[in-house]
Amino acid sequence: MGLITSIALVILIIISFYYVVKHLRLRKRLKGINSPRSYPLIGHATISKPDPEGFINQVMGMAYLYPDAPRMVLFWLGPMPIVMLYSAHLVEKILTSSNHLSKGFAYSLLEPWLGQGIITSNVDNWRPKRKMLTPTFHYDILKDFLPTFNEQSRVLVKRLASLPEGEPVELLSFITLCGLDIICETSMGKTINAQCNKESDYVWAVHTINDLVQERTKNPLMWNDFIYKNFGKGMLEKKCLDILHSFTRNVISERQKELEESEWRLHGRLAFLDLLLDMSHHGLLGLEDIHSQISISSFHTYLPSNFSAFFSILLKVDTLMFAGHDTTSTGASWALYLLGCYPEIQKKAQTEIDDVLADSDYISIEHLAQLKYESLRICPVVPMIMRELGSDQDIDGFVLPKGTQLIINQFMVHRDPMYWQDPEDFNPESSYVMACSSRFLPENIAGRHPFAFIPFSAGSRNCIGQRFLFYQFAVKDRARRSLYLLFIISKIQFFRKAYLMFAMMEEKVIVSWVLRHFNVTSMNERYNMKSKIGVILRPSNGIHVILDKRRPIV
């Protein structure tokens, strides 16, 4: 026994020595990159802030410490180096490279919820395996969504109007339920009336699991699944997962029953779930496979080989539910918060809304064409993304080794004074909300770096919501067999711009409805507003506003 123990101890010492030497060599290789003082193995653990608000301030503070070129900073999460980029030209090198398509390690922590879907999948699962077909862009498809957007926005403003006037309202919770109703109806073909309930277990679970991922990312000891499940907050995560997966499964079962009762007569725009269930009905996919896929892993595991390329890229339902309601709802809430901080700008937006709509409450596609992105510049819903280098990469004279974790800090890219004058100012000076800012007029955009504004990321793996909406437009073709041959194009700039319009449409309709019927006054001054980073940029304690009625709701 003593000999075995000695051998095990020697092996342990050799392995430890190997990793220590490897770590020290890595530190030497990265020496010279801007970085606060750190220590071997533990990195910046001694100064790391444990709370979400402190963490975001610390990360942003590191960027502010080094505002000059190359706008790059290194920090150590325990023994792991993470390089944060916040310069448009550096970000472009990474996001346009076909060598760096793999997401960062933090996305793997979402896999118990989202599986190997398009948000979390590695490059081998994500990359298309066959030739992509380019669908044709039709504005008519947008009109299929607008009735749902308008109807659910009407429900939202009626709920807000029923509250005691003059008292603070936590706006984000109301808009989140509105977004949940919209995504269920448009992508699942199912009306759930989430806005009729004061609280939603599903929304609570989404918010909680986002916080858990953020906490776990910062703690190297919790990266191991066994340790996390037994000594971390694994039980709370399991509770959230049970709620999230049960919600999705129930929606699937109810929608399947409705289709069976209609004898599978599909008409109009097919929802994503309708397509899956129709495939099951025609023997192309078992229902049990759909349930398994939605909660566990990627579509390509269960589909015939000729469909695997499509579904390995396309969103699975849990991803749709998250990306389709949480990001949009938060974005709309941030936009209303900013307008509530600047009443003079809000007044201009309301005047234009009134002039354009006249006596109508219906927001049409023509009314949305003027809207731009100033609120997303100030408060990008996804403030950071992570990538893992697939090969050695030269970044302004520093060669970062393969496997290095990168953070693309969109929040700070949008505040680069090289491209944005007075970057902290909310500046929708010209025309409509969200905003048709002077920053985004054609003459200003023309001279700006194309990666200086990337609220939906950029390159081949840009925003998941954009791809979902592009899919929704593509399924307009009513020939069922052709529906199975739909694909997503993400590398062509023209279509990337089209994605932005789709992804923003729901948010714009919601904001327009609220401003049409209420004056919004934010309770928290902008520079006192605390936020936290999970998967998205979320206010720490909600968005509290005072709503004063402007006009009756019909």
How would you sum up this structure, described in words?
By secondary structure, this protein is an alpha+beta fold. It has one domain: Cytochrome P450 (Cytochrome p450), CATH 1.10.630. 50% of the residues lie in helices and 8% in strands. The protein contains 22 helices and eleven strands. The chain has helices at residues 2-29, 52-65, 88-95, 111-114, 123-126, 140-161, 171-187, 201-218, 225-231, 234-261, 272-281, 287-295, 305-313, 317-341, 343-357, 365-368, 374-378, 410-413, 442-446, 464-474, 480-483, 493-517, and strands at 72-77, 80-85, 169-170, 384-388, 393-395, 398-400, 405-409, 518-522, 531-533, 537-539, 544-549. Strands 1-2-7-4 form a four-stranded mixed beta sheet. Strands 3-11-8 form a three-stranded antiparallel beta sheet. A hairpin with a 2-residue loop joins strand 5 and strand 6. Helix 14 packs across helix 22 (493-517). The longest helix is centred in the first third of the chain and has 28 residues, at 2-29. The radius of gyration is 24 Å and the shape is globular.
CATH superfamily: Cytochrome P450
Biggest sheet: strand arrangement? 1-2-7-4
In terms of quaternary structure, the protein is single chain
Portion of residues in helices? 40-55%
Q: Tell me the β content.
A: 5-15%
The main β sheet shows up as: 4 strands, mixed
How many domain modules?
1
CATH class: Mainly Alpha
Q: At CATH's second level, what is the architecture?
A: Orthogonal Bundle
Number of helices: 22
Mean pLDDT across all amino acids: 76
Through-space gap between termini: 83 Å
Shape: globular
Number of strands: 11
Structural class: alpha+beta
CATH topology: Cytochrome p450
- Rg, Cα atoms, Å: 24 Å
Low-confidence stretches: 126-139, 286-315, 430-436, 464-499
